[in-house]
Specification:
Length: 400
C-alpha cells in the first residue's frame, strides 16, 4: 500500500509518497527519523507498466545477486539499513528497486528483516525467510546470508546445467515437427497433385501420405485449435493436486528421465536440509520447510510422512528407509550423520554426490537421445522421399 504523508522537519514542510503496511507504520517511520507527522493518507500506488512486467520482472538471478551483495556489506561492518540504502542507489531495475525500498521502509518502521521479506514470498522462499530469521536470532545474519548466497548460486548453476543439456534435444524435436507439419500441409499437396493427371498406380506409402496431407490441408485450423485446447485442459488438470501427483508419478517411472528427476529432487532437498540444520534449525522444522520447497509431489508427500514420524520420536534415517522412495545411500548416510552428530555435513556431501550423479545421468540422456533423434529424423525424411520419388519412377517406366 502507498501513503502520502505531510510532515515537518527542521522547520520545513515535506510532502512525499511512501510504501508501507499501514498508516501507523508510516507514523512510526517518520517519528524515528526526526519528522513531525501532520497527515498520512492512503493513495493509489504507481503501477508498473505492462512492458515493465514483461521485461523487468524480478527473477532468480536478482535474488541471488541481492543476497550476495547484502551479505558482503554486512560482513564488511555495515548495518542492514546502510546496506539497503546503498543497494537502492545502485539498482536500476525498477521492480527490484521498489522492492528494496519497501523492505528498507518496513525495517526503518521497526520490523525485522525476515518479517519485511514475507511481503515478497513469490521472490523469497520459506527456506530463505527461515534462514534470515535464524540469522537474526543468533546475531550471525551476515554469515547466514553468505551461506545462503553460496547455496543459491549452486542451485542456479545446477539448474543452468540441466537446462543447457535439454535445450538441444528440445529444439531439434520441436523444429522437426514444425518442418513436417509445413511440408505435409503446404508443400506436398502441390507435388502430389501432379500424380492425379496420370493413370499410374501409387504405392501404399504415397497413398498414406496423400491421405494425411489432404486431412492436414483441409482441417489444419481445427488441428491447431484441438492442440491449443488440449494444452489448456492439460495445464488446468496438472495445476490440480491430483493431476500434479499423477504426472509426477508418471515422470518418475520414465526411463532415464525419471532417474534425472529423482536425483534432481534429492539434490535440492539434501542441500536445503544441510543448510537449515547447520544454521541451528531443528530437524523437524527443517523437514517442514523441505516439504514446502520440494516441487515433486511424490517426494513432497514422502518428506511430509518422514516429518510426521520424526515428530513422533523416530530417527530421520529410519523414517527415510520406510518410505521406499529414497536411495540406500541417503538412508545409510543419514543414519551415520545422526549417530555422529554431523548430519548437516553428511547431507551437504550427499547433495554434491547427487549433483554429480545428475550431471552424469543428463550427459547419458543427451548421448542416447541424439542418435535416436537422427534415426527418427532419417526415417521420416526417407518415408517422404520414398513416397514422392517412387511414383515418379513408376511414371517414367510407364512411358517406356
Amino acid at each position: 500500500m502507498f501513503f502520502q504523508y505531510k510532515a515537518l522537519k527542521d522547520g520545513k514542510t515535506v510532502v512525499k509518497k511512501i510504501e508501507a503496511a499501514s498508516s501507523q507504520s508510516v507514523i512510526d517511520y517518520l517519528q524515528k527519523n526526526g519528522y513531525f507527522p501532520i497527515s498520512v493518507e492512503k493513495v493509489q500506488g504507481q503501477d508498473i507498466s505492462f512492458l515493465d512486467n514483461l521485461t523487468q520482472r524480478i527473477d532468480f538471478n536478482d535474488i541471488v545477486n541481492f543476497t550476495r551483495q547484502v551479505a558482503i556489506m554486512l560482513n564488511a561492518g555495515l548495518t542492514l539499513v546502510d546496506s539497503l540504502e546503498i543497494l537502492k542507489k545502485q539498482t536500476t531495475k525498477l521492480p527490484l528497486k521498489k522492492m528494496i525500498e519497501a523492505i528498507d521502509t518496513k525495517i526503518k518502521g521497526g520490523s525485522s528483516f525476515s518479517i519485511a521479506l514475507q511481503d515478497y514470498k513469490k521472490n523469497f522462499s520459506k527456506l530463505y525467510i527461515s534462514l534470515v530469521k535464524s540469522g537474526e536470532a543468533s546475531g550471525k545474519l551476515g554469515e547466514i546470508l553468505l551461506r545462503l548466497a553460496d547455496n543459491l548460486e549452486k542451485e542456479r548453476e545446477f539448474k543452468s546445467k540441466l537446462k543447457g543439456a535439454l535445450v538441444y534435444p528440445v529444439i531439434i524435436i520441436v523444429g522437426m515437427f514444425v518442418v513436417m507439419f509445413i511440408m505435409i500441409t503446404f508443400v506436398l499437396p502441390k507435388l502430389l497433385g501432379l500424380y492425379k493427371d496420370f493413370n499410374v498406380e501409387l504405392p501404399l506409402s504415397t497413398k498414406i501420405l496423400i491421405g494425411v496431407s489432404n486431412f492436414s490441408t483441409r482441417f489444419w485450423p481445427l488441428v491447431l485449435v484441438l492442440i491449443i485446447v488440449s494444452f489448456y485442459f492439460a495445464k488446468k488438470y496438472l495445476s490440480t493436486k491430483a493431476g500434479k501427483k499423477s504426472f509426477d508419478q508418471f515422470a518418475l517411472k520414465l526411463p532415464v528421465f525419471g532417474h534425472i528427476i529423482s536425483v534432481s529432487a534429492l539434490v535440492e532437498s539434501t542441500r536445503t536440509l544441510a543448510i537449515l540444520i547447520s544454521a541451528g534449525i531443528s530437524i523437524l522444522d527443517a523437514l517442514s520447510i523441505v516439504v514446502d520447497s520440494t516441487d515433486n509431489s511424490v517426494f513432497q508427500q514422502a518428506f511430509m510422512t518422514v516429518s510426521q514420524k520424526v515428530e513422533k520420536g523416530q530417527s530421520m534415517g529410519i523414517a527415510l528407509e520406510q518410505e521406499g522412495i529414497f536411495p540406500p545411500i541417503l538412508v545409510q548416510m543419514s543414519q551415520v550423520g545422526e549417530q555422529t552428530g554431523n548430519l548437516d555435513d553428511t547431507l551437504l556431501r550427499l547433495s554434491k554426490y547427487f549433483e554429480m550423479e545428475s550431471e552424469i545421468a543428463t550427459k547419458t540422456m543427451t548421448t542416447l537421445i541424439e542418435p535416436l533423434i537422427l534415426v527418427f529424423l532419417g526415417a521420416g525424411v526417407g518415408f517422404l522421399v520414398l513416397s514422392v520419388i517412387t511414383p515418379i519412377y513408376n511414371l517414367t517406366n510407364s512411358f517406356k
